[in-house]
Design goal:
10 helices; DNA-binding; 62% helix; mainly alpha; homodimer; 258 residues
DNA sequence: ACAGGTATGTATGTTGGACATTTATTGGAA
DNA sequence: TTCCAATAAATGTCCAACATACATACCTGT
């Protein structure tokens, strides 16, 4: 039995991810800023009631994410944001869950999506198999069945699955894996926009248009439909969209293997 | 920098990466195939002479890469290739170092690069600062000074730095981080093509053209120059390039947030 | 008084063993 | 034959001790 050590503070003992979560939260809240040192191992052990081994595992997770660096015999220092491994799914998950005011990274990720997702839609329209269409269609039907619900959780989940399924339909390993990385960000953007959007039916129509284009093997139409979907999201989040300079010829793409 | 950047130096005696390296090598060689079980912890301890904690850390690295899954009380099973975390720099590093016959993943990554790098070049031409140009130029000069050397190591290193510097010049977090992921693959492709290419001077001219386009803020020219560079590489590696269907309008891109 | 090397303390890194938990298998009883 | 309990083996967790690295403080010599 413990003498009510951690009672006053948070519920920090049961889950494996909770300690890392809490540290991340404090870092993103600005309590520990880049260059600062977080508490020592033994101090965390005493404060959290976890074994040193467990604490070291959690800190190791932060190291893997490039969030802190551990200096032997000295301490654990928070690294600059630019050093964080943004493409680590765990990191994007942390950021999307705890980075309320940290909009910069969100905007950069949205910028990235606005650049690539039209192309992903094109590739999906060229390469999607019947099985891919099933996944896309199931996600869409989930969106349609729940797009007027009070609780948007179901709809948001299907919305994310819809986008991820399109990444998968490219049948390219890199794009498929990127969907894992972007999934938390997509979820955040989707949940934001779906709570603020004025006309959920309009968004649903855009998704339907995109799905049909992929089904009918119309890459050109898929390209523009994807832009329409994203413009909707960007508008709901008040993010600027500016056109890029224009290449006079067409881009190339390597053939898909197998 | 990513922690795995220094892992490329393969002094694999008692280095921390050696055990994981060896396991990966055996997996990629087909000795342990997806679904198979690798030896037990204690067996590895006896065989390698390392402590159980160290062995567990190495196995944990493989788990982080999605390469194996550990079943409590049963064993460690190799996962399907599609489950591997291709966007983990450590994983790409392993694959590029040990996956001799495994060309599929290499091709998929090259396919990805062929799709995105022209766009990256465009963005770099729009956003590159003077400091970015310094990095690009230094890399190019290194290529020029060593492009006739017997040992291509120096030239290859600068070639990789050249491409990475362009990713950085986009000033978008996601693209910058992607360069870390792609770095090992770029290095492999570069070293292959540079040993097989017939006319190294021609490749150098293409790089020069790309650099100038970025410097002169000519996104259109940068786009085509990047294609020329990649076509060179693809041709040297006998990889097909097929054009994509063509959108009738132009893609969009979100504004960069400082 | 100042410079430089050394001693020391603190925090992280590593090791080995003991214990707990999970899983598949084996053996026995209805 | 079927179902349940005991067992064996492997992974997961914890603890205590030791080794190493870093920075500070001290101490000596010029």
């Amino acid at each position: 039995m413990f003498p009510s050590d951690t009672a006053a503070t948070e519920t920090c003992m049961n889950d494996t991810a909770s300690l890392a979560d809490q540290l991340i939260k404090e870092i993103l809240d600005g309590r520990y800023q880049p260059g600062d040192f977080i508490p020592k191992e033994l101090e965390i052990c005493r404060h959290s009631g976890l074994s040193r081994n467990a604490v070291r595992r959690h800190l190791g997770a932060l190291v893997n994410g490039g969030i802190i660096e551990r200096i032997s015999g000295y301490g654990s220092r928070v690294r600059e944001f630019s050093q964080w491994h943004i493409l680590d799914p765990a990191v994007t998950d942390w950021i999307t869950r705890f980075a309320g005011p940290h909009l910069e990274i969100q905007r950069e990720i949205l910028s990235f999506r606005l650049t690539v997702e039209p192309w992903v839609a094109m590739m999906a329209a060229s390469s999607a198999t019947a099985r891919d269409l099933v996944a896309i269609e199931e996600a869409f039907e989930g969106m349609r069945d729940h797009h007027l619900d009070e609780d948007t959780a179901q709809h948001d989940h299907c919305d994310v699955s819809f986008h991820v399924a399109i990444y998968y339909a490219t049948h390219n390993i890199v794009w498929s894996q990127l969907s894992h990385v972007l999934r938390p960000s997509i979820h955040l953007l989707v949940s934001h926009s779906n709570t603020r959007t004025l006309d959920p039916t309009h968004s649903l129509q855009n998704h339907h248009r995109l799905m049909d284009a992929i089904r009918m093997r119309q890459p050109d139409e898929a390209y523009h439909a994807a832009i329409a979907v994203l413009e909707d999201t960007a508008r709901a989040l008040n993010v600027d969209i500016t056109p890029m300079p224009t290449p006079t010829h067409l881009p190339l793409n390597a053939s898909h293997v197998s």
